Known about the structure:
43 helices; alpha/beta; globular; 5 domains; D-amino Acid Aminotransferase, Chain A, domain 1; TIM Barrel
Amino acid sequence: xTGDYVSSAASEGLNEGLDELRREEPELYAxxxxxxxxxxxxxxxxxxxxxxxxxxALYLVEISEARLTSKAALRSTVDLVDxxxxxxxxxxxxxxxxxxTEMLKTSSTLLPELQLLLEWADEMKALTILSNVDHPxxxxxxxxxxxxxxxxxxxxxxxxxxxxxxxxxKMILADSEAERKRGLERLLPMQQADFEQLFEAMDGYPxxxxxxxxxxxxLLPDIERLNEQRERxxxxxxxxxxxxxxxxxxxxxxxxxLHEQYPLLxxxxxxxxxxFPEIYDMQLEAIFRAAVxxxxxxxxxxxxxxxxxxxxxxxxxxxxELVDHVADQVLGEEKRHCLYRVGARIEVPxxxxxxxxxxxxxDFFSFGTDDLTQMTFGYSRHNTxxxxxxFAEHQRSLTSNPFQVLDIDGVGQLVxxxxxxxxxxxxxxxxxxxxxxxADPASIAFCHRIGxxxxxxxxxxxxxxxxxxxxxxxxxAKQDHNENRQGLSLLRYFFFHGLSGIGFVTDALGALTxxxxxxxxxxxxxxxxxxxxxxxxxSLVLFAATLYNVHFSSxxxxxxLSEIGQVAQVRGSIGPLVRPEHFLFFVDIVLAVPVWFILxxxxxxxxxxxxxxxxxxxxxxxxxxxxxxxxxxTAAFCITLSGSFIVKGETIDNELVRAENLGFLNYQVSSAIxxxxxxxxxxxxxxxxxxxxxxxxxxxYSYQEKSSQGTEIKAKYFGQAxxxxxxxxxxxxxxxxxxxxxxxxxxxxxxLNDLAKESYYFSHFFQQIGQGxxxxxxxxxxxxxxxxxxxxxxxxxxxxxxxxxPKLLGxxxxxxxxxxVNDVTFWNRNKMYPALGFNRYFDKPSFENDKFNDFGPxxxxxxxxxxxxxxxxQAANQPFYAQFITASSHSPFTVPADRARIxxxxxxxxxxxxxxxxxxxxxxxxxxxLINELKANGLWDNTTLVIYGxxxxxxxxxxxxxxxxxxxxxxxxGKVSRFNIPLLIHTPKQAKGQVIEQPGGQLDIMPTVLNxxxxxxxxxxxxxxxxxxxxxxxxxxxxxxxxxxxSFVNNDIMFIPGAGFDDGTAYSLKTYEPVTDLEPYRSDYxxxxxxxxxxxxxxxxxxxxxx
Length: 1107
């Protein structure tokens, strides 16, 4: 604890430090010290505290996070680890890039704090950090800063120094190969000395040497200067100048012969070595002679020879043969053995596209991101950085300089493609990048994600790269832990993508318990049949559970069996989920058949034998007794141990984590126990007390800012649509990203785009559905109650007297009707609609089947029937609420060829995205037809139209994300974007739209709509768990089922818990990047969990309705 303290007794302005306080007021000093420790432990940050001492009391005036210099920030981070407040991993994650760069600017050596942090980083990172060097002294600097080898030695920088360049130029301008070789003999010892120093500096570490690389024009003298020099000599009449003139003429002639119109696309890199192989001969001889010398000196030498700018597999094959020839020659002559590698520098798109062929001849790939960026974008770095890039960044045509930050969407895809192809050919192919962006944290994170082995950067950037590599590894591990938790069985592998020791134990306990119980209760003669039947049944359950998990990203409980009857209706959606490996659940059954026949034949053979063992039955009953006792004890042990796991698991809200920790069977038991406890509590509950708890909890959260007087602000837009009809369109599987997006110049949602311009368009709106999917979306939009996530709300709570939107509007004289082309019994809607207060429903028999998809009628047919009913209400002067549940964009997104309205580019033809966009485009078209009919029939100007998506349509995977980003050019990340659905509300005669960026969810639809319709939920004493999005400043709402319980969205982030809050993961809603500082959001997490539990309690306490 350090700081300033000015005693009132001291001379004015005299600062005697905190020691003075310790001497004057030791008790207050101890209190201040305790306060500092408490704040530091709670915030995990060093705090800056302003305090005052008055009349023997200590007052904390202001507390804020300390503003620290880079050196102080790193030192405080180390101190927090030493004090046990944060972990080493936390320490690494909180380091900012500028901390490291600022430290290195002020000191050429690594300060102790930074050195310690770098040592921790090295323990955590997966990427090897190499360095680019141009000189032996750079190699020593790189090693001092922690480089683990040389990733790129640019030999042209060694040869093009002032003292050597004349020899290089003379060699290039030679008229004959013999003359060129004589020039190279002068350069050989110089190059050998360079490599000897590099091997010495990197003893024990790899040294990657790129053979001569520059364009030919850089090695040639300037033609204009040569001509000027010749003119001066020609004007002189001295005879000795004639010789110089002749030599100049020869040089000029040679330069003109070697001149290229486009030198950067001409004779350079490996092409230079093809035309002048003697140059590469010299360099290779220097490398291997230096290697031999180093080996004789006891050094560990492992040269890695990089062939630059490979564009064709044959080029690398030729160059490799050259390397092997020179190596055999030198090593044979020196009678020494040296291991070496030959690799390709991937710098042109063709090399990336044909990487599988190039990998046949390569031991490693080095991606030269500078040249690969130039070739991909089609511009020169040296020119565009001065004239174009800064302008492009300002205009946002580029988000960053692609030479500094790897262009992941373009260049990055080429790198990843080449890596995948190369490793298909050679699984252990070493690969990495060399370039300026090899020190950029975002680029390093990408390299880690795709599985590169190394990055190579400038020596002074090595510490930054070490930290960034560790951060990338930690963030990836955290994401894997939360999203791909690894847990004995094939089911665990499919659910959690791996196996673990504790997982083996919990799964084994559950399975062994069941087997023991069966053994104890099943009669001997029935055991074989029961075991066989149980095995078949259990395999089917596990198979179904796996498909359920693939679709819902959740672990099914026994309650999901109640919805088995829905499978036939969604068979088209289930089929694509099945993968060949899922049938491994039935392998044992298939193998059991031939095994049974073999054993049966052996038993038959045994019965035909004359051998009998008269002692076989001796003591059989005793053995059976002890056997039964052993099985019973085993069962008791398993149940006891399983019980301990189950009790421990009750504290975990995240269903995925709880299922992983308990195992599948124990998780079912745990779910049943928790449901029983909840039901017991509900039986003794009181709904009015629950409502009071809800109101108290909601009042403590600042959904809306207060006025300057501390009073509630009057609601805006109240009654704007009072008296109007209400039409709600719930669009199937409709995500937000297609709105305002185009595909090859074709607008995907022209109708909704235009409607958004004259509506309230909520761009950060999210799904909140539970197990009931589409029916849960209907339930929420009409009740503003959370789905429990345990059962579909239509199945679990349709027997309740549900407070709802139709009932509130019924008080205002409205008739409420709902339309859906499917059978009304699907998802128990025949029970849910009456419970919600709809006067009538129209289902499958009400529509003509135009055979659009598996559900039958199209959206156009849905709206045709709806228009008939709505125009009838209009004619009777009857205000109405009409709800339409669309199905034309239901998975598997099949659109008849004659209804397809857009042309899909070849890049995504016959993909899931292809089908999805066709379906979404048709859905949009059908909405347009409805709007036209509303206008034509005079309904439009007296209608409030609400449109929202029910849930996501596309899974979260990298392929879908990449396809959307590439083909639509919109920001998209499956972890967050797939839950983002649209909400549009158009009120009568509304001409000007408004984009509302306030995040919200499906619970908020009803409160928002009723505010516009002039119905006050407060006056109605209606308990809603959502809020009016038009009168809100802050929001926090939960998402369950497709995400684990405890997941929530607020104004800034989407949060997904681990076992609890502290090991959770958060993503920014703006950038989709991980957010590491979670502490500011802890209160939102606790609030949402409490609110969802009260919602569950509330809906279970609702009285049952009369039959």
